[in-house]
Amino acid sequence: MASHLRFGIVGLGLDQFLKQLGLHPNWQFVDVYGMDPELLSMVPRPVCAVLLLFPITEKYEVFRTEEEEKIKSQGQDVTSSVYFMKQTISNACGTIGLIHAIANNKEKMHFESGSALKKFLEESVSMSPEERARYLENYDAIRVTHETSAHEGQTEAPSIDEKVDLHFIALVHVDGHLYELDGRKPFPINHGETSDETLLEVTVKLVGPL
Question: Where along the sequence does the record put site: Important for enzyme activity (predicted)?
Answer without folding.
Answer: 182
